[in-house]
Amino acid sequence: MTPLFDRALRIAVGVNGIGMGHASRQAALAEHLRRCGHEVQFIATGGGAQHLRGLGFTVHESWMPTLIASRGRVRWWPAITANIGNLHDGLRRYRAIAQVLRRTGVPDVFITDYEPAASYLAYQFDRPLLSIDQQSKFRFLDLPDIGAYTPTADRQRLSWFTPHATRAFICSFVPLAAPNASIEIIPPLLADDVWHSTPTSEPVITAYFSRYFGHGPNASARALARIVADNLPEISLRIYAHDADARQLVDLNSADDRIVVRRFDRASFLADLARSRCLVANAGFNLIAEAALLGKPQLLIPLPTYDQHWCARTVHDQHLGVASPNVTLNSLLALLDRTDEISSRAQRLRDEFLAKDARPLIAQHIERLATRKTNPDRVSTR
User: Fold this and answer.
1) CB within 8 Å of 85: residues ≥ 6 apart
2) Which of 58, 284, 288, 354 is least enclosed by beta carbons within 10 angstroms?
3) What's the whole-model pTM score?
4) Contact call for residues 170 and 137 (beta carbons, < 8 A)
5) What whole-number distance in Å separates Cα of residue 315 and Cα of residue 318?
6) What are φ and ψ of residue 12, in 5° steps?
7) Mean pLDDT of 310-338
């Protein structure tokens, strides 16, 4: 077969660094693209930039505007006041990235995962732009409000970050119906270490709690440790959190090592998750997808965002786990009583949907796009 390209393609990927899910998802794709012989570089912010640089990728650090929702939507005046002090530095970073790309070779294709600089660089250089994320389901699909939470703010941010794209790939851990032919629903982009894990079921609960602004893991971790210590003597507990939060929870470690708090380490966490009976965590998309692929029942405590509440409700409705506002004995027992049923459901979901690796599909689409001279087809909500 004649290849669609005659050289390594240059691909730039924009990553929102507010959470590690974006970086993990795009790192999995980038590793595949690199194995295909292409050159991948990142435009990223925050912890995502550090993680990607540690994997050996070139990373250009960008600026991410602060767009906090108030009463269900992003308001103009708070957005202006929150960003005015950083606007000059943000524009300086954008211009510096553009200059580097112009000097070293403008990428053939840009990808954005909830990150605006990559989108506007694609427009500036008139290159194809792919949107590959999980938030776009809140933009393109007609999803309901969940209690006080609404998709409006995410829809606003996405329409500002990426006004139009050549094609949108929406990652989902359950099958969804695409609204039109320019949008494709794909299984989550998961790292090779998840695909290569062999799940077992030992009397271990693995927990991971993250931080979202002022909402940290303290209350959930302490409640879970107390429940396990007082009511489940046959169960061991491994609680993971990031550096500062883990240090504040060290008093939960039991003398017999039945309850252990660990600073987050990817390899250790994945090993514990693969052998655990269930997962207790916040409702981050990537972790839900990894647990579902490994067949692990999940007790989810969503952080105060629409994204997390939608994910938690979907896990509950799809019989993959239990959603609860807090960690309680009743919610944990409700999960443990259904582990066999939930694991069977997760296995069916894996066989029917999750086990498809979407990375070759995206790589082929990128290679086709790079042969085009123009960029006529765009996905837009404006």
Assistant:
1) none
2) 58
3) 0.91
4) yes
5) 5
6) -110, 130
7) 96
